[in-house]
Design brief:
With 171 residues, the protein is mostly helical. Helices cover 84% and strands 0% of the residues.
Length: 171
């Protein structure tokens, strides 16, 4: 019986390792690249239609609708670029999350308030998937295939080599 139990645990551990190895490719392909591109497209579209976006923001009674439209356009364009390449990922995830929560509060308040009573309405609202993608990057980070990860490795390597150099000269 003990051998069978060990075999089951080994199979389960192998399964967990195999699925876990998909985390970084998933974060890269299905979250950062796809949704980064979507954010960039939306920001670019807003920048090229600022009059319509300003009019829409004015209809929502947002303060300074022209400046807000420009700000949101730039946030989405730049945030999408940063998300796609994985640079300042968690900060970008935070900014985009706040942006999408603001979109819910100002443009889809009814959908936001129906999160528990009518979850289909909440998830069908335009900001939903953008919010979800932003939260995934904010909470889980960009994964291994990101500039953040590369820079972190380079900085740690440099710090480690400085510590080693300091110790060798102090003796």
């Amino acid at each position: 019986m003990r051998t069978e139990e060990n075999a089951i645990w080994r199979l389960y551990d192998g399964f967990v390792r195999a699925v876990s190895s998909l985390q970084s490719p998933f974060l890269l392909l299905f979250v950062r690249l796809y949704w980064g591109w979507e954010f960039m497209e939306d920001g670019w579209g807003k920048l090229h239609n600022l009059a319509k976006v300003t009019e829409y923001f004015a209809s929502l009674n947002l303060p300074a609708p022209a400046q807000t439209a420009l700000f949101v356009s730039i946030i989405e364009l730049a945030g999408g670029m940063l998300l796609a390449v994985g640079l300042f990922s968690r900060l970008t995830g935070l900014v985009l999350t706040v942006n999408m929560l603001t979109a819910y509060v100002t443009g889809d308040r009814e959908a936001l308030l129906s999160i528990f009573t009518a979850p289909d309405k909440f998830s069908a609202a335009a900001p939903y998937m953008y919010l979800f993608a932003s939260l995934v990057v904010l909470i889980f980070g960009p994964g291994k295939f990101a500039l953040d990860t590369l820079f972190d490795r380079l900085i740690r390597k440099r710090k480690y080599s400085e510590v080693v150099d300091t110790r060798s000269y102090s003796s």
